Amino acid sequence: MTDHRGDPDTDPYLWLEDVTGDTALEWVAEHNAPTVAALTGTERFAQMQAQTLEVLDTDDRIPFARRRGEYLYNFWRDATHPRGLWRRTTPESYRTERPDWDVLIDVGALAREDDENWVWKGALVLRPQRDRALVLLSRGGADASVVREFDLTARSWVTDGFTLPENKSDVGWIDRDTIYVGTEFTDGESSGTDDGKPALTDSGYPRVVKRWTRGTPLSAATTVFAGEVSDVAVGATYDDTPGFERHFVSRAVDFFNSLTYELRDGAAVLVDTPTDAHVTVRNQWLFVLTRSEWKLEGMTYPAGALLVFDYEDFLAGVREATVLFTPDPHTSLEDFTFTHDHLVMVTLYDVRTQLAVATLGDWSLRELPGVPALATVSVLDTDPDHSNEISLLSSSFTSPPTLLYGTTDAGVEVLKQSPSFYDSSQVSVQQHFATSDDGTAIPYFVVKRDDVESGPTLLYGYGGFENSQTPGYAAIAGRNWIDRGGIYVIANIRGGGEYGPAWHTQAQKAGRHLVYEDFSSVAKDLVSRGLTTVEQLGAQGGSNGGLLIGVMLTSYPQLFGSLVSQVPLIDMRRYHLLLAGASWMAEYGDPDDPAQWSYISKYSPYQNIRADVDYPPILVTTSTRDDRVHPGHARKFVARLEETGHRVRYYENIEGGHGGAADNKQAAFKSALAYEFLWQTLAPGQD
């Protein structure tokens, strides 16, 4: 049997990394067919697919919108428009039950007109005129996008406007006739750089940013900044705040460390903050959110602290900080944003949201009236240049999304609410803490019907990149799992940001094992509490969470009855060579470094598959058009599992990008497929 621990060139399944190769796609078709046949023929699957599509397509859900000048813009998908509509309305109309929407772009109609499989990726509206937009369109949902300029007044594409071919480009307005652009600079732009180095980084993102003037070829764009090929990406932005107009460039040296510069008189002036800090310049202030301890001017500031400086004084070397937030063992800063006169801070206390407002320059804190308790609250939109207007999203596991609107002066009130998609009147939520292998308390939420004492349980986790898993309305899980008697669990394992930066940084690189120890400890705790049994415990995760599930299969198979791994990283020996993988070495480590491969190799699922271990059944899904996490990970994992005689189901959506689906129908199918697999494997006699 082949040993996959050595030279990756000996890997017999490298041919499955040929994304659109005929032989590889034949393999995909051969594996999709039995999975579809086994999982889609039941009445339960048909019900779950229909129920999921109803959630995704309903016209009664909140049309979340962002203010851009005098209009509120929204992107909307429904049954009639599966590709989506980019539309806008007035604030007055938006406050009514049925707003009058003005459709700007019908993506489905555009796809038919262009004979392209367009998927919406967003739009950048020119400020302050708000009459032009740079529109990003993806083929099949990939990260790479085509850029086109759209005239919002004429409702038409701009002839000879700013356009870019498909690439992972980075663009932004400077003024009506000038943009910043980072791209591959193909089609005759020589190397695209002044230094002769590649225009893209090893991670596949722009290394060079240029200033491009309307009416000139891209080859005439002027280079304003360049990073190194080993960087993750380089970008530029223009801050057009009246009275504080500034140009900034940034260089991400890895996923978590970056350098920020202000362009002054053609020179890049370094904003000399810690490279791992989150840096924001607003008006005359510099805000720094630390991710590691920072010793400055005789003071020591902990990781997770929010500091504010006078920006010009800071650049001149005068670095007197005002501390706006200091974390404690239970509380972390999740996010902060601005209205015209206020700073808004969203914090987590044991993974429960709290929100505070401070007046800019005064910095005294107060609560925002109208914010509900015991709910996850996030800031959706503000209008910092003109008003103290604020829109918030509030939800919990059992209460549907609620849109709160108001001002940071007077408070907020309910403006719109999504319908309830399952009966949560007899559903309760509990928070428990498991003890990990090193003694750390790991919180997790349990959501179940009150009449369910124990039974089939679905454990979800992520554990990476400082992404917090906060409570949110479980519409699809509610219908397809909780309402049917299943127990739903969210684990707040290390690698996330639930308790601030340290909750993440201790699980990077050599500390990665903590992620898997935490998740396995939650699994054990669920069984020891009597909520489920090993045979009825399933787990699910996607992307980095898909890697988590792969590790559960190969390192903790005795803890689970079945597993679902979606768009996963699996081959950690080669992940940095595939698509955007090089950008994640700050998270996982460099497998080409023997010292780092020594700890990566201990958990990398592909290298740890064994024929002599009894693995639980697993469903592995991915997307051909995922240009972030290479579909070869999932394909090779399945091939290796089959080679060693294990049970495995596989499904690859031909479209969808990293999200796995290009429209709501595909998303509903993919979701129902996973739930049907879980029901069949965890409760085989239950309808």
UniProtKB/TrEMBL annotation:
On the tree of life, the source organism's domain of life is Bacteria
Q: Does the keyword rRNA-binding apply?
A: no
Q: GO molecular-function annotation terms?
A: oligopeptidase activity; serine-type endopeptidase activity
- Annotated Peptidase S9A N-terminal domain residues: 4-233
Q: Which UniProt keywords apply?
A: Hydrolase, Protease, Serine protease
Q: Which GO terms describe its biological process?
A: proteolysis
One cellular-component annotation, GO: cytosol
Q: Name one Pfam family in it.
A: Peptidase_S9
Give residue ranges for domain Peptidase S9 prolyl oligopeptidase catalytic. 482-682
What this protein is called in its record is Prolyl oligopeptidase
From which source organism is this entry?
Gordonia jinhuaensis
